[in-house]
Amino acid sequence: MNEKILVVDDERSINDLIRLDLEFEGYAVESAFDGQEALEKVDSFNPDLIILDVMLPKINGFDVCKKVNMEKSIPIILLTAKTDVIDRVLGLELGADDYLSKPFDNRELLARVKALLRRSQVVVKHETDVLKNGEISLTLNERKVLINNQEIHLTPKEYELLLLLISNLEQVFSRENLLEKVWGYDYFGDTRTVDMHIQRIRKKIADHSDQDYIQTVFGVGYKMRNF
Questions:
Q1: DSSP three-state, residue 137
Q2: CA–CA dist 97, 50 (Å, integer)
Q3: How far is CA 123 from the centre of its chain?
Q4: How much is the CA Rg of the chain, to the nearest whole Å?
Q5: Which of 15, 77, 79, 105 has the fewest CB atoms within 10 Å of its CB?
Q6: What is the CA angle 37-119-94, rounded to 5?
Q7: Angle, vertex CA 194, rays to CA 152 and CA 71, nearest 5
């Protein structure tokens, strides 16, 4: 197992415990204890996944998450001591792929880590390397998304959602079905996660197109229109 994980938490006892558990599972782990150090280690360590606390010195976790997602496609699990749904929604809006409230069961954290890494490594087989629908094209081997020939940046989960929808035009997926297919059977989140990711994808598409590609099917879920 060669996956690299960056653990960012200013509480050393929590950071050390998470690190030990991950190393026991065979992951290569680096720790950071503030937001500035986290950004530096994202560049030097180039992790495959980040476990990121919200309440950090120097630069908070929300800002770290936002900056990482502007530059890289790295899955992020956000840790927060707060139970307010607004904080969880904000984290998802800024590009986090998952969230976990403190205190948490380390077995659940490990399950989420494995699910995210597994899904980010899935290779979808298609007859062609490029999928197109209207103004949107996905280059699969590069995980690149173009709209009107302009590249847009998607987080890993945003890309997987868009790939699933564009591979199944006009097929309606329930939120639960999308959780199962994109996050995996052992994902512990709720359907709000799907809604927030769809909302972000729609906004990024709308920045480059006037077409309404992803439609909400009332009482069911979502589908992508065939253009």
A1: strand
A2: 10
A3: 16
A4: 18
A5: 105
A6: 45
A7: 30
Residue 123, C-beta contacts closer than 8 angstroms, at least 6 positions apart? none
Cα separations (Å) of 90 from 94, 99, 120, 174?
6, 11, 22, 23
Determine the Cα–Cα distance for residues 170 and 121; give it in Å rounded to an integer: 26
How many Å apart are CA 34 and CA 44, to the nearest integer? 15
Q: Over the stretch 209-218, which tens digit does the pLDDT of each residue have?
A: 999 999 999 8
Count other Cβ atoms within 10 Å, centred on residue 191. Answer: 13
The CATH code of the domain at 130-224 is 1.10.10.10
Does the pTM exceed 0.70? no
First to last CA, the chain: 42
* The Cα angle at residue 44 between residues 47 and 57, in degrees rounded to 5: 85
- Give pLDDT < 70 ranges for the chain: 1, 82-92, 119-128, 184-190
Domain boundaries of the chain, sorted by first residue: 4-120, 130-224
Task: Tell me what pLDDT residue 94 has.
Answer: 74
- Do 4-120 and 130-224 have matching folds? no
SS3 assignment, position 27: coil
The tokens for 53 are 């606390």
* pLDDT digit string, tens, across residues 26-69: 999 999 999 999 999 999 999 999 999 999 999 999 899 989 98
